[in-house]
Amino acid sequence: MLENTVIIGVGRGGCNALSKVKLKVEKLFVDTDKKDVEKYSGFCIGLKTCNGLSTGGDVVKGELALRESKLQILDRIGKFSNWIIVAPLGGGTSCGGSKQLADLALDNYKSVKVLASMPFEWEGNRRKHHAVETVSYIKNLCEVIDVEFDPKKYPSQISMTDIFNLLDEKYMEAIEKICV
Asked: Of 36, 12, 30, 34, whose CA–CA distance to 74 is shortest?
């Protein structure tokens, strides 16, 4: 399966989680924030829409950015039959971009799975609302694999950096389960 598989990290969280995956598999990092995506030698989507900056949590901007760049994305990964999208949800690029990416995959007869996680409670209702809407949309298109993580199971003094690193580990485990 690996030789015909590409894993796509979407948004800051998706790119960060994917960067820690050690498997020898094709990877594509996509984000609207040029500074963030350059850390991973990734692809900055939506340059006209976002001017190389974050979507600022705007899901519509995330959708437009992906649509703007869909031909370049297909040039890079169109040869792969299996697409795995890594998208910790809540942000504009992760929500809007992952919806459009799933659409793009299906429009081009690709098998697609989306690994997604919900925002943490302290990230607010807006991000949670965006994530719930995104999962509802994507579930009508393809398989969504919930990457479950409950920070309440860890000591209260754990840092945010450690929480996000633990979430990244959950993504790595989910990817390995699919690919190995």
From this structure: 30
**At 168, phi and psi to the nearest 5?**
-60, -40
Residue 123's Cβ-side half-sphere holds a number of Cα atoms within 13 Å equal to 19
Question: To 10 degrees, the CA torsion angle through 132, 120, 62, 30?
Answer: -120
CA torsion, points 82, 112, 85, 108, in degrees to nearest 10?
80
- Give yes or no for a contact between 56 and 127, defined as CB atoms under 8 angstroms apart: no
Bridge partner residues of 19 (DSSP): none
CA atoms in the 13 A half-sphere facing the CB of 126: 6
Single-letter residue type at 7: I
pTM over 0.85: yes
Domain 2-179 has CATH 2.130.10.10: no
Buried b (16+ CB within 10 A) or exposed e, 10-30: bbbbbbbbbeebeeebbbbbb
Tens digits of pLDDT across the chain (180 residues): 578 999 999 999 999 999 999 999 999 999 999 999 999 999 999 999 999 999 999 999 999 999 999 999 999 999 999 999 999 999 999 999 999 999 999 999 999 999 999 998 889 999 999 999 999 999 999 999 999 888 778 777 888 899 999 999 999 999 999 987
